[in-house]
Amino acid sequence: MKTRINPTTGREELWVQPEGLPGIWMTRGYCDRCHPFNKCMGFLELTDAEWKSVEDLILETNDFVSLEKSPNIPKLKKCSI
Fold first, then answer.
1. Are 59 and 70 in contact (CB under 8 A)?
2. Among candidates 67, 81, 76, which has minimal Cα distance to 35?
3. Are 13 and 4 in contact (CB under 8 A)?
4. Beta bridge partners of 24
5. What residues contact 47, with CB distance under 8 A and at least 6 apart?
6. What is the tens place of the pLDDT at every residue in 11-67?
């Protein structure tokens, strides 16, 4: 696994290159834009088991209305983001 320290941000990054696509440098964990969003939506509070059920549900549907009405996950908070 190739890693580097980004000279601009000072954060550690990994080289990610899916098969057949160009590679990019990505930071570990949430990016600066995603962390506040996930905190606001309540995703950071989910246990591993709850997060697994959300991932399974996402595979079954991409319709946000169905996801929001699902009893399998806690009620999502509304954000101003």
1. no
2. 81
3. yes
4. 16
5. none
6. 899 999 988 999 999 887 767 777 777 777 777 788 888 888 878 877 776 655 555
